[in-house]
Structure formats: C-alpha cells, structure tokens
Amino acid sequence: MKRAILLYNNQAGKGHASDKVEKIVGIFVKHGYQVTPRPIVFGENPFDGYEDVDLAVVAGGDGTVNYIVNKMKEKELNLTLGVLPAGTANDFAGALGMSRNVYKAAEQIAQGEVEKIDCGVVEQVNGNGEKLYFVNIFSFGIFTTTSQHTSDEMKHKLGRLAYGITGMHDLKNMHGIPLSITTDDESFYYPTLMALIFNGETAGRFRLARQSSIRDGMFDCLFLRKRNGFISAINMIAYLIGIKPKAVKFVRTKTLTLVTPLNEDTDVDGQNGGRFPLRATCLAGELNIVCPKKVKN
Q1: Which residue, of 111, 134, 162, is where some domain finishes?
Q2: What are the distances in angstroms from CA 215 to CA 80, 103, 116, 283?
Q3: Residues 28-44: tens digit of each pLDDT
C-alpha cells in the first residue's frame, strides 16, 4: 500500500481545514493510500520521520505550499507533492489545474499524473548561502508585501477583499526603488515602483503575466516604472485591460540579478523574501507534482 502524508494548515482560507481532513483521508484510502494526517506546526519540519513517503499532500494556500517546499528542500528530499487549494487565492493550485473544491482536487490527485513543474529560488548575492524557494511569485515594491501584512483573521472574514483593504494602507508608503537589473540577455537601470517575477501564472487569480507558465523554465517579469501615483495607477490599469504602456517593462529570463541601495522588503509567495542584492533563478522541472490527468481527445 502506498504511504501518504496529509499536511494541512488550520489557519489557511476560512480556517476550517481540520473539518475536512476525515473526508479527504477517505478519498485517498479509497484509492489505495495509507494516509497520515498532520497539522502543520510552523517552525517545525513536517517531514521529520516521513522522509520516504510516496506522496505528500499539502492543504493550504500559496504561503503554505511555499513553507512545505522550503522544508522539503531543507532536508534535501525530492518527494512527490499534491496541492489542495485551501487558502485565500490558491494561485499555484490554479496553475496546476486543480479544482477549487478540495474534495474534487483530492480525487484529481489520487487519480492524477506526476509532472515536472518549475520552481524559483532566491538567494542573496555574496550572502550566507541561504536559499528561499518559491512556487508562484517573487515580488517587491508597492502592494507586493500586502499578503505578509494581512492578518489571518481578516482573510477568514473577508477573503481576497482583505488584501485590497491592506493594500490601500500601503499606498501611504509608496516610493520608487532605484534598481539595477541583469537578465540572461541584458543589464539596465530602472527606477521601479513595483516588480513581479512570476514562476506561476497569476497573482490573486489575476493573469498579469499573460505568457507565464509553470512548465517553460522561464520567469516572466513585470517592472512598473516610478511616476507620480496617479500616472502609475493609470499605467497599471492600462496594462490590466490589454494596453502595453511604456511604463511597464516586460522581461522573460531564466536568471535575474537585482541590486538596489535601499533596504527594501521582498516577498516570496506571501512570505519574507530576503534582502538585496538578490539573485533569482528558475529551476526547470524542479518539483514532482501530481496534476489532473489530461483528457485524451
């Protein structure tokens, strides 16, 4: 019998993950798995004693998946993962093609196919060697650390609207970031208001990087040039409706080095993303993840 571990975050989404555990376990048992459910205790490694399971199923949002991937990498494991969308936005689960219903998603995993999925990693240039892995997005600038500043209580009560409310407070801290950027093909200076480096395909379920894919071995990067607040907002709105303003620079690259003299906060999948100068690398096919079985024509 195949061994699986179900790692669930009781604080994710509406905070009711534990209420669904029994039914989720039953779905995997029906498909021949022996399942051990474990609530995630942040600060501990959930793989202690479970280094050789056949499948690790993660129930939570993007931040939870980020935590599990980093803890797996910390132990130098290469386990097969399944992702149940139990968070607020669930961007990575959406990119995998998972149903938003956790029970249907559990069926998709139990009957799915393992695919090689890209993963990003951020590390400080000339730093201590610490690596921060991310599955969906690495970002900095206005609104990009909103997830870190949004309480679980607000998320539970308001869902994605909570991010919008917190983001409005971030407007008062709006400032430009003098940024030197080096990609696979070029180096340039760009005074930046916001930077989004996508491994995944959406942010808050909005497809901002329209060509982005978790299977192409490349980052899709958006840099919003610093102008005054009103013009910057107009430029971003224009981009969202399909216009390509000159103030939004788009870059596709596998590696990215970012340097600024500012002590700027950064974000990976809603978690702290480290300090500049930073290097980001797209690791093609780094993760083994169960995806829904493709329908044959």
Answers
A1: 111
A2: 16, 25, 7, 10
A3: 999 999 999 999 999 99
